[in-house]
Amino acid sequence: MIEVKMTKCQLFLTEGEMISLLASNRDIWEKAIARGKAYQRMVNGLKRYPKGNLSKAIDIFDNMFEERSK
Fold first, then answer.
1. Which of 23, 43, 45, 66 is the most buried (most CB within 10 A)?
2. At 2, is the secondary structure helix, strand, or coil?
3. Boundaries of every domain in the chain
4. pLDDT tens, 25-68?
5. What is the dihedral angle through the alpha carbons of 48, 34, 29, 7, rounded to the nearest 10 degrees?
6. Could you tell me which residues are beta bridge partners of residue 3?
7. Are the CB atoms for 54 and 60 separated by under 8 Å?
8. How far apart are the C-alpha atoms of 66 and 59, rounded to whole Å?
């Protein structure tokens, strides 16, 4: 199960349901893959720095993708 937290509810989807939804909109699929790759690079890079910077870097990362999606 994949949990998706939204503003007023939580969704629980199976992997198959998520793939089906993403397959119907290729653009979202590609953005999600790119975001996942960038996130993994960021997390791996942060392992080299003190742990206090992790939450700040995640906030920066989230804001960066929110601005690009506008």
1. 43
2. strand
3. 2-68
4. 899 989 989 989 988 888 787 777 666 666 677 777 777 766 66
5. 60
6. 12
7. no
8. 11
